[in-house]
From TrEMBL:
Biological classification of the source: Eukaryota, Fungi, Dikarya, Basidiomycota, Agaricomycotina
Protein name: Citrate synthase
Domain of life, per lineage: Eukaryota
Active site: 297, 343, 398
Residues annotated as signal peptide: none
Organism listed in the record: Obba rivulosa
Entries under PANTHER family matching the protein: CITRATE SYNTHASE, CITRATE SYNTHASE, MITOCHONDRIAL
Annotated keywords: Transferase
A GO CC term attached to the entry: mitochondrial matrix
Keyword Transferase tagged: yes
């Protein structure tokens, strides 16, 4: 009976996918989503009916002390991470996304608009649907005057990530979800205003990021959003790099690959957790950003560049492998981590690192800093293995992002994590929409004290 429910829901999904392909041109993301939600509700119901009582295996006490590594604890629809092969967005690898997602005219990198559509629906959109999304986001891009003033009043010495988080949190002033909740919206309709807030959130981030960048680094007045251009072009232009076709392409790739990394990473999980209290998407994503701002998470892309620059000032440019090795060892011996290396889940080189490396090989193969990143790649894993602590000696996404931004003249490292944050909104927003559509409950796992654990196992051998 359970199996037949699953089959029925799959048949309904297939019917609905066929419908989508015939009427794709006319459908907006919200229209498509409203068709998919009832299908997915049935799918989840069937999956829970069939598998709900099955166990993933035992939970051991070390997992409670060890940052919950490997603990199956969350549902996250947009992406799943495999330790060996890396991330798949709705089942698609990064190279597959690069191939399948729509591009801008003359562009070769995927448009993040298409990635968002994929994260939300599990489907690859048409060129027209992606263009419509670019236009929709451009139309929603303006930020309220008081948020502009809030950013303008921040001292330039306040870290750009703190400014970013303040501004995103303040967008809650106009939250459609918070308003609808106060007006007594029914649970079954939560997803509608969550969708609107999520679209507004993503749309407004370039104006927030651009304003912070120009304020902090004295880069002059913010230009207007161009409604005929895509999201990444507008973001690049607000930062002052709209003239560089390569930088715009880099933004398309960057926003696509940093968007989502399943649900357990700090920023994604924080957004989901805060959203589970029915805090609106602005409050939820503001919280995500505060997690992303930590040096073991998104701030690592700033830390990598700082570390590379420090290395250069200590051992000079074009340093020998021996000198680099010595510098890496001195980092470890100083009780610090090598930023950009290691990962909580991955056990191979991050495919996001590889995608950025390929971009560099194509566009900036002779860049001296890129060469240093390559040299470090040949040296660090062996040293981390020899040091014997890190479970994954290979580079993660952050080991490569800064060098690309620096190449095009975006040299202000403290700003880098803001760009990561713009991208991470895509993944968090997509999940918030589904969480509210599927009625995800308040998150509240059980915690224990050390004494409670000791007591629990007092008279037991295992
Ligand atoms: C977008 C992202 O968030 S990607 C990650 C970005 N962060 C970084 O690049 C910072 C450097 N890397 C790290 O600190 C870690 O590898 C993390 C935080 C990413 C993962 O942490 P964990 O899952 O705890 O890693 P792991 O189980 O391998 O850690 C075991 C030990 O190796 C150490 N280790 C792991 N990676 C490194 C590293 N790059 N340099 C030095 N030591 C390391 C850990 O600090 C830990 O030491 P401890 O036992 O003294 O506490
Ligand atoms: O998956 C993680 O824990 C960290 C990471 O790479 C990301 O969030 O992009």
């Amino acid at each position: 009976m359970f199996r037949s429910a699953l089959h029925q829901s799959r048949r309904a999904a297939a019917r609905s996918a066929r419908f989508a392909s015939t009427s794709a041109k006319q459908q907006t993301l919200k229209e498509r989503l409203s068709e998919l939600i009832p299908v997915e509700m049935e799918n989840v119901k069937a999956a829970r009916a069939e598998h709900g009582k099955k166990s993933f295996g035992p939970v051991v006490v070390d997992q409670l002390y060890g940052g919950m590594r490997g603990l199956p604890a969350l549902i996250w629809e947009g992406s799943v991470l495999d330790a060996e092969e890396g991330i798949r967005f709705r089942g698609k690898t990064i190279p597959e996304c690069q191939e399948l997602l729509p591009k801008a005219p003359g562009g070769q990198e995927p448009l993040p608009e298409g990635l968002f559509w994929l994260l939300v629906t599990g489907e690859v959109p048409t060129q027209e649907q992606v263009t419509a999304l670019s236009k929709d986001w451009a139309a929603r891009a303006a930020i309220p005057e008081f948020v502009q003033e809030l950013i303008d009043r921040c001292p330039p010495t306040l870290h750009p990530m703190s400014q970013f988080s303040l501004a995103v949190t303040a967008l809650n002033h106009d939250s459609a979800f918070a308003k609808a909740y106060q007006e007594g919206i029914s649970k079954k309709d939560y997803w509608g205003p969550t969708f609107e807030d999520s679209m507004d959130l993503i749309a407004k981030l370039p104006n927030i990021a651009g304003r912070i960048y120009r304020n902090v680094y004295g880069q002059g007045k913010l230009p207007a959003i161009n409604p005929d251009k895509d999201y990444s072009w507008n973001l690049a232009n607000l930062l002052g790099f709209g003239e560089s076709q390569e930088f715009v392409e880099l933004m398309r790739l960057y926003i696509t690959i940093h968007s989502d990394h399943e649900g357990g990473n700090v920023s994604a999980h924080t957004g989901k957790l805060v959203g589970s209290a029915l805090s609106d998407p602005f409050l939820s994503f503001g919280a995500s950003l505060n997690g992303l701002a930590g040096p073991l998470h998104g701030l690592a892309n700033q830390e990598v560049l700082i570390w590379l620059r420090k290395m250069q000032s200590k051992i000079g440019e074009n340093a020998s492998d021996e000198a680099v090795k010595e510098y890496v060892w001195s980092t470890l011996k100083g009780g610090q981590v090598v930023p950009g290396y290691g990962h909580a889940v991955l056990r191979k080189t991050d495919p996001r690192y590889m995608a950025q490396r390929e971009f560099a090989l194509k566009h900036l193969p002779e860049d001296p800093l890129f060469k240093l990143v390559g040299q470090v790649y040949n040296i660090v894993p062996e040293i981390l293995l020899a040091a014997g602590k890190a479970k994954n000696p290979w580079p993660n996404v952050d080991a490569h992002s800064g060098v690309l931004l620096t190449h095009y003249g975006l040299t202000q490292m403290q700003f880098y994590t803001v760009l990561f944050g713009v991208s991470r909104a895509f993944g968090v927003a997509a999940q918030l929409i589904w969480d509210r559509a599927l009625g995800a409950p308040l998150e509240r796992p059980k915690s224990y004290s050390t004494n409670a654990i000791k007591q629990m196992f007092k008279d037991k051998t295992a």
